[in-house]
Design a protein that fits this description.
The structure holds two protein chains of two kinds.
Chain A lengths: L3 E4 L2 E5 L4 E7 L6 E7 L6 E7 L4 E4 L2 E6 L4 E6 L8 E7 L10 E2 L3 E6 L1
Parallel strand pairs in A: 2-11
Antiparallel strand pairs in A: 1-3, 3-8, 4-5, 4-9, 6-7, 7-8, 9-10, 9-11
Chain B lengths: L4 E3 L2 E4 L5 E6 L6 E7 L6 E7 L2 E5 L6 E5 L5 E5 L8 E8 L7 E2 L3 E5 L1
Parallel strand pairs in B: 2-11
Antiparallel strand pairs in B: 1-3, 3-8, 4-5, 4-9, 5-6, 7-8, 9-10, 9-11
Classes of the chains: A mainly beta, B mainly beta.
Chain lengths: 114, 112
């Protein structure tokens, strides 16, 4: 089955700086890669996703890049703010039938230092 | 906008008891997913349903079963509960035509 590795497990950055979280996946059939933000005691919230036919996607301060050859995708957050502090999960699925379960990375605890 | 609704939000059970968790998807969503998240861990996919049929299966224990009803809501039934079943249980929903999954607030299950 799919295996998703995520690094780093903890990331501390100064407010206003950029943060980058990296993930690799093992199943070459995976073609859908969402990123979720999870605050303490809450459900994961989708922040951005990318499909395999796209190399990069941006939404305001958040961007995701995908390298299918290397089986690698990354989340970039610019101009970080205190409210960006949370646990971020990358995930992957094959999207074969539209109801595939997601395989998550272990998560990155992002800490924004004021 | 309406979100996924899960009930109950908190549940305390004794070992060997049974529990039923409910999930009401976003209106017009036809697909539901169940995930289990242990403390400090990532969500683990359990099972998904589309049009009342099981669609994908993950690491769901044999003691657990789930179903989806004609109004698209879903229930996760958990029997012979073990201490290790203590976790957050999330339901997510989507349209079958789109991969994007939207998660609910979760049910926190504590097994004593």
């Amino acid at each position: 089955g799919e295996n998703v590795e995520q690094h780093p497990s903890t990331l501390s950055v100064q407010e206003g700086d950029s943060a980058v979280i990296k993930c690799t996946y093992s199943d070459s059939a995976s073609n859908y890669f969402p990123w979720y933000k999870q605050e303490l005691g809450k459900g994961p919230q989708l922040i951005i996703d990318i499909r395999s036919n796209v190399g990069e996607k941006k939404d305001q301060r958040i961007a995701v890049t995908l390298n299918k050859t290397a089986k690698h995708f990354s989340l970039h957050i610019t101009e970080t703010q205190p409210e960006d502090s949370a646990v971020y999960f990358c995930a992957a699925s094959t999207g074969r039938g539209g109801a595939d379960g997601l395989t998550f990375g272990k998560g990155t605890h992002l800490i924004i230092q004021p | 906008a309406a979100g996924v609704i899960q009930s109950p939000r908190h549940l305390i059970k004794e070992k060997r008891e049974t529990a039923t968790l409910k999930c009401y998807p976003i209106p017009r969503h036809d697909t539901v997913y169940w995930y289990q998240q242990g403390p400090g861990q990532d969500p683990q996919f359990l099972i998904s349903f589309y049009e009342k049929m099981q669609s994908d299966k993950g690491s769901i224990p044999d003691r657990f079963s789930a179903q989806q009803f004609s109004d698209y809501h879903s229930e996760l039934n958990m029997s012979s509960l073990e201490l290790g079943d203590s976790a957050l249980y999330f339901c997510a929903s989507s349209l079958i035509t789109q991969e994007t999954q939207y998660f609910g607030p979760g049910t926190r299950l504590l097994v004593l």
